[in-house]
Fold these 2 entries.
Entry 1:
Amino acid sequence: MFAFFNQFSFVVMIVFGLLVLIGLMRWRRTAWGQIMGIVLVISILTGVIWSALRPGGSSVSSLEEARTQLAAGKPVLIEFYSNY
């Protein structure tokens, strides 16, 4: 169960945030049409930002290619990240 929340923490936080936003807007007696419009806009913006900030594919396809670049004598940036 913990692995699920670890892998999908961003999605879970966004859904929780949207539910809190909907609850607050209903408490303020906002019309359902406005609420759904705002939730739709926030969801689209979140999806666009998430897609834009995801790391791209690797420029190195093998271990030998990485070793060659490291031995070339030029600075090399090595980035470690998790897709979670």
Entry 2:
Amino acid sequence: MSKANEHASDSIDQLRARVNQFVEARDWAQFHSPKNLAMAMIVEAGEVVEHFQWMTEEGSRNLSAEQKELVGQELSDTLVYLLRIAEVCDIDLLEAANKKINLNAKKYPVDKAKGSNAKYTEYE
């Protein structure tokens, strides 16, 4: 396995622990309030969007290897901040995501939502 992929099969818990260790070694937790982390995450999410700005739909679906690398870096930054917010707020992301998917399944039943981009309030 290449150096770049050596952590590809890590679990979310392993990644969270690695990020926490990284933060602890640098004494950065003091700066990681939920507010600061949320703001930093949105900045990084904006940097993801920047890569797609002015692209066509087709172009956004067919990124070059270089574009994928750059988008991947910004997605990674966003993910790391998301993990830190969850850590600081003591939120189990997998549990929260599963609960949200269950809620969305009720809001968007297949028979009404399949093939539609309408918000659930439009067909309730």
